[in-house]
Structures are given as structure tokens and as C-alpha cells.
UniProtKB/TrEMBL annotation:
<dbReference type="InterPro" id="IPR014710">
    <property type="entry name" value="RmlC-like_jellyroll"/>
</dbReference>
<dbReference type="InterPro" id="IPR011051">
    <property type="entry name" value="RmlC_Cupin_sf"/>
</dbReference>
<protein>
    <recommendedName>
        <fullName>Cupin domain protein</fullName>
    </recommendedName>
</protein>
Length: 110
């Protein structure tokens, strides 16, 4: 069974999960040849390994607080903040509290 993604013109709810966070799941919302948008759910204390995205990206914190290590610094993203990373920038994200991120990648796939 293939994964269902949103279609052009479809309104996507990216509201915080709030009290429903325990049932929240990560999901790819848009997948095109040049663009990918996904909601990433990260429980408090969990972290991603250091990685490099397939292109330039933005990370928007929808809810919670995460620690972002990239570009030679560590900073905290809080709800309603956004950061831009260039293609090739290695990074890691650690959730300080239960967090939801909206990640948009401008793909540079071959």
C-alpha cells in the first residue's frame, strides 16, 4: 500500500498536537521531485544522529523546544521559530520537551 500524500490545493493542518501528543506520529505531507515537507515528532530527550539533508532546508518548530547543533553552534528552537540550513550542512536535533517540527527540503536529488 502506498503512502498517501497531500495533493496540490489541499489544506494541511499543522496545528500543535498539545494534549494529544502521545498519539502523534511523524508524517510526510508533500513529496515531489524537487520538494519534500514533513512533520517530525520528537519526544523529550530523543535526538537524531548527525546527518545531512538532500538539499537546503528549513526547520520550523511548531511546538516544544529543540536543541539544534549545526554550523558550528548549538541553539534552541522554540515554538514559532524557524531556521534555514544550506545544502550539505550537517546537523542534529534533540528534543528538550515533546516537540513537533515542520521540515521543508528543497531537494537536490540526482
Amino acid at each position: 500500500m502506498s503512502i498517501q500524500h497531500c495533493v496540490p490545493g489541499e489544506i494541511i493542518d499543522i496545528s500543535p498536537f498539545g494534549d494529544n501528543f502521545d498519539t502523534a506520529t511523524s508524517a510526510t505531507l508533500i513529496r515531489e521531485s524537487h520538494l519534500e515537507v514533513f512533520r517530525f515528532v520528537l519526544k523529550a530527550g530523543k535526538a537524531t544522529p548527525e546527518h545531512i539533508a538532500a538539499g537546503a532546508l528549513t526547520i520550523q518548530c511548531v511546538e516544544g523546544d529543540v536543541e539544534l547543533a549545526s554550523c558550528g553552534q548549538t541553539q534552541v528552537l522554540k515554538a514559532s521559530t524557524l531556521v534555514y540550513l544550506r545544502a550539505g550542512d550537517p546537523h542534529t536535533v534533540k528534543a528538550l520537551t515533546d516537540s513537533t517540527l515542520l521540515i521543508t527540503i528543497l531537494l537536490e536529488r540526482e
